[in-house]
Design a protein that fits this description.
The protein is an alpha+beta fold and about 475 residues long. It is about 15% helix and about 35% strand. The longest helix is centred in the C-terminal third of the chain and has 23 residues, at about 420-440. The protein is elongated and about 70 Å long. The chain starts with a helix and ends with a helix.
Length: about 475
């Protein structure tokens, strides 16, 4: 009987904890999950989220899009990848926003089996003036999902996502789209700018857009969207860890102490903060080593680097002191986590740094003991890493061409310069007539030079087709 009572007590304790977490979970005002090309109204993905078919909505502004269904879908792929929407000309999805500001935008891609050669799909994707990507750099022909993840600031009440095929490809496509209001504390406006010359505070980050390049759970397992309040994926750090000599993994089964004003569950979930890699001294000897992770990046862009810390390994407060390095530059000296978490252990803290992607093509992050590290203690810790590309001066995450130039280029490549050409030819014809009259002295005998006052029927049809396709 005592065993049954204990079991029921434990059950109800877990139930109360579950419902308290659900009630406190993030509820975005804007939350659009679109299954593109789907003939059914709703589709539930592997993470139990309900996507709406775009055929049953008013989000798709184009009338010239094609819906495709995979005749032989992979059983290992989510149902949202079993259909796609294909575009042969610039086409838009429009989302009315209840809450202007920063929004999460995720685009899902996977090729479908069939006659269409998705490996040759080359196109641009634009969002309210930002160039999100140019798929010339994406491996569309590979048999796996590609998720492009952004934080885009929207100052109006409408977000427009535009797909623009290139001349060589002739089509664009997308499998699914997510548009979700971002929490106000997701991106801070202030960060430390770190390079070999200086380490200084900069402001104005919120004016930019961000593309997630890496989201890593250090020392832990893969975190799926089902276990993240913002439906993010965090991957293990093993492939980025340069050397694990002298470091070890730690896991924590207790409660993570989130605090008001500190990192929230939307900034980082429990499953990121309850695991870590550490450097631990042995006896009275403090190891002379750093843990280092390296990430390939693109030269010419700035990156927002967010490092997540949560002291789940120390046996007491005030025992953990360590240094943080970004690209071998000292970013944080003698970091004492208890001083920034109100003296609590297992309380999350994150630090944001802005760094330049240089010619090396690699971004290196390190943590290691400092001059104030203590023997018989933990001497360095890291729980998670996020690296986000910041858009360049033309609002692009992929190249030096702005959104306006891409749209203008598509019009010129696809014959929308016909009317300027006809007008120029018309003016040249008039000039030729006038010059001819003056040279021959003819003043009143030009009836046979009659100029056309109507465009032939075939041109009228072509002209109507062009005008109906204006963006």
């Amino acid at each position: 009987m005592a065993t049954l009572s204990s079991t029921l007590t434990l059950y109800f304790s877990f139930a109360l904890l579950y419902f308290s977490l659900v009630s406190a979970s993030f509820s975005p005002l804007d939350h659009y999950l679109i299954n593109c090309g789907s003939p059914v109204r709703t589709t539930v993905d592997f993470d139990h989220r309900r996507f709406i078919g775009d055929a049953a909505t008013t989000f798709l502004a184009s009338t010239e899009a094609i819906s495709l269904t995979d005749a032989n879908p992979s059983p290992r792929s989510s149902p949202i990848y079993h259909t796609a929407r294909v575009f042969t000309r610039p086409s838009k999805y429009k989302f009315v926003l209840k809450n202007p500001g920063a929004h999460l935008v995720r685009l899902h891609f996977r090729r479908l089996s069939g006659s269409l050669d998705f490996s040759n799909a080359k196109f641009h994707v634009l969002a309210n003036g930002f160039v999100l990507f140019n798929s010339l750099s994406m491996e569309m022909g590979q048999d796996f999902e590609i998720v492009k993840d952004y934080v885009i600031r929207v100052d109006s009440d409408i977000l427009v996502i535009t797909f623009v095929p290139t001349e060589k490809s002739k089509f664009a496509f997308v499998n699914a789209i997510e548009v979700i209001s971002a929490p106000t504390d997701l991106i801070a406006d202030v960060a430390q700018y770190v390079n070999f010359e200086k380490n200084e505070q900069i402001h104005g980050l919120l004016k930019n857009g961000f593309e997630t390049m890496y989201r890593v759970n250090v020392g832990g397992w893969k975190v799926t969207p089902f276990n993240d309040s913002l439906w993010r994926t965090w991957i293990p750090d093993d492939e980025y860890l340069k050397s694990n000599d002298g470091s070890s993994k730690v896991y924590f089964s207790g409660r993570i102490n989130y605090q008001d004003g500190g990192a929230s569950r939307e900034v980082g979930p429990d499953n990121v903060y309850n695991s870590a890699r550490v450097i631990r001294s042995s006896g009275n000897s403090i190891p002379e080593l750093n843990m280092t992770w390296t990430f390939p990046v693109t030269e010419g862009y700035k990156y927002l680097v967010r490092m997540h810390f949560c002291d789940i390994a120390s046996v007491a407060r005030g025992m953990l002191f360590f240094n943080v390095y970004v690209n071998n530059n000292l970013a944080y000296e003698n970091l004492d986590l208890t001083s920034v978490t109100n003296g609590l252990l297992a309380s999350p803290f994150y630090a944001d740094f802005v760094v330049d992607g240089d010619s090396s093509g690699v971004l290196a992050l390190s943590v290691g003991p400092s001059n104030t590290s203590l023997p018989c203690a933990v001497d360095a810790i890291l729980n998670g890493v996020e690296i986000m590309k910041i858009n360049n001066s033309v609002g692009s995450f992929d190249g030096e061409i702005c959104a306006h130039a891409i749209l203008k280029s598509w019009k010129m490549e696809n014959g929308n310069v016909l009317y300027p050409t006809l007008a120029a030819s018309f003016l040249l014809l008039i000039a030729f007539v006038i010059i001819h009259q003056r040279r021959t002295g003819v003043t009143d005998s030009v009836a046979w030079w009659r100029l056309p006052t109507e465009i032939p029927e075939v041109n009228l049809k072509y002209g109507n087709q062009l005008s109906s396709n204006k963006l």
